[in-house]
Design a protein that fits this description.
This protein is α/β, with parallel strands linked by helices and about 425 residues long. It folds into two domains: about 160 residues, Aspartate Aminotransferase, domain 1; about 240 residues, Aspartate Aminotransferase, domain 2 (3-Layer(aba) Sandwich). The strands form five sheets. It has a seven-stranded mixed sheet with strand order 4-10-9-8-7-5-6, sandwiched between helices. A hairpin with a 2-residue loop joins strand 11 and strand 12. The radius of gyration is 22 Å and the shape is globular. It starts with 7 loop residues before the first helix and ends with a helix. It comes from Albidovulum litorale. It holds the Pfam family Aminotran_5. One of its GO terms (molecular function) is transaminase activity. Keywords: Aminotransferase, Pyridoxal phosphate, Transferase. This is Aminotransferase class V-fold PLP-dependent enzyme.
């Protein structure tokens, strides 16, 4: 575990900006990571550097050559991050835009007829893309119902809907509201058994900062992440598309390369800042393996991050030291149950004696940053069936500590009125 290696947690935290204090409000504990992780200091420096370059790609000068080299390195690092065997990595406007592009390309390029399959657990980024392009292509859009009690959706729920005429399927890797992960590999394998030509698109936006990504292991044709949730910055999304998805007709400049996903000139700093993320994971993983292979170190980092966050989730839900966990505090209701296994960095909850908005402010006054989620177009798929209008989301990352969790539980004990 990260916290078990002397000095490592301090080294980790030193690599991120604003770990202990908000630049606007002062000292605080950051438990709003699902809304956007803290930024690596290297990412901030790289962003500023590349924003200042006046030169463009594709010119006959040293500056252009340097930009093209940064893009090439960024693409290689992205492919390593995805553990991609073939296919193409690309940068888009956002993770949401990348998902729309992947779904659109698959829906328009797949064999005509058939159905498109998703689930009610999905973020509206993929669900909306599927609804849009199912309507355009005249296909039914089937949504497998998730389990309110566990906050996830399993293979058993998918099985009745697995038919040979599946054309496009979307799977969310982890819910950003319940924090519960999905057996993507198992569901994808079951889809492949009955519909081997189905295009499978995975929304990895919530998962990507909580463990290693492996597109081959999950049998995906497309995978999307949002870099601002993986220690980078806003302003771009990163996607991977398999060779067969890349071979389909896509929007592209007439006469341009058929295998290119990017449209227009992309920001070289996008690629360079993602290289910073991969370099950080490489560094972190080197503390947990002696392997000389970068991918092995990235996987080791993923395991270390997942293990550390599981410890934080256990402390938050079941208690730490002499502090009661959320399950033992009066009036607390957890969204999606109290399981730690399968949970990736998120606990969403309601408090009987305090409105969610008031609880966010109550915690803020005690130096703890969390966020309210509402029964709207972003979270209504989770909160609506439960009959809730809102909840608060508490989300951690691997640079958070058990001491910070203890401070949160102390504040929650005060909020509940528990002795």
């Amino acid at each position: 575990m990260i916290a078990d290696k002397p000095g490592l947690m301090e080294e980790v935290r030193a690599r991120f900006a604003h770990v202990e204090a908000c630049p606007f409000e002062g000292p605080r504990i950051f438990f709003e990571n699902a809304g956007g992780a803290l930024r690596l200091k290297s990412v901030i420096e790289t962003s500023a550097t590349y924003a200042g370059y006046p030169d463009n790609q594709g010119r006959d000068n040293p500056a252009a050559a340097a930009l093209m080299a940064a893009i090439a390195k960024g693409k290689a690092d992205m492919a390593l991050f995805f553990n991609a065997a073939g296919g193409r990595v690309f940068v888009g406007e956002s993770g949401t835009e990348v998902l729309f592009r992947l779904v659109r390309t698959a829906a328009l390029g797949a064999e005509t007829g058939g159905v498109m399959l998703g689930s009610t657990l999905e973020h509206p980024a993929s669900a909306s893309a599927m609804a849009r392009w199912a309507a355009v292509t005249g296909r039914p859009h089937i949504r497998v119902a998730h389990d309110d009690a566990t906050g996830t959706v399993g293979l058993a729920a998918y099985r009745p809907h697995l038919t040979a005429d599946l054309r496009v399927a979307t799977i969310v890797h982890t819910s950003p509201v319940t924090g519960m992960s999905v057996d993507v590999a198992g569901i994808a394998a079951a889809i492949r058994e009955v519909a081997p030509d189905c295009f499978i698109i995975v929304d990895g936006i919530q998962h990507a900062s909580h463990g290693a990504v492996d597109t081959g292991a999950v049998l995906a044709d497309g995978y999307a992440v949002s870099p601002y949730k993986v220690f980078a910055r806003h302003g771009y999304g990163v996607g991977w598309a398999s060779d067969r998805l890349t071979a389909l007709v896509k929007e592209q400049i007439v006469g341009g390369p058929a295998d290119a996903w990017e449209l227009g000139t992309r920001d070289a700093g996008s690629y360079a800042t993602f290289s910073d993320v991969v370099a950080y994971l490489d560094w972190l993983g080197g503390h947990f393996t002696t392997s000389g292979e970068r991918r092995s170190r990235i996987e080791a980092a993923g395991k270390a991050i997942a293990g550390h966050e599981a410890r934080l989730m256990t402390a938050m839900i079941h208690g730490t030291g002499n502090l009661a966990g959320l399950v033992a505090l009066p009036g607390v209701t957890l969204i999606g149950g109290d399981a730690v296994e399968g949970r990736e960095g998120v606990v969403s909850l309601r408090l009987a004696n305090m409105a969610s908005g008031d609880l966010v402010r109550f915690l803020a006054e005690r130096g703890i940053r969390v966020h309210i989620r509402r029964n709207d177009h972003y979270c209504g798929n989770i909160l609506g069936p439960l009959g809730y209008e809102d909840c608060i989301r508490v989300s951690v990352s691997h640079y958070n500590t058990e001491a910070e969790v203890a401070a949160f539980l102390t504040a929650m004990r005060e909020a509940t009125g528990a002795p």
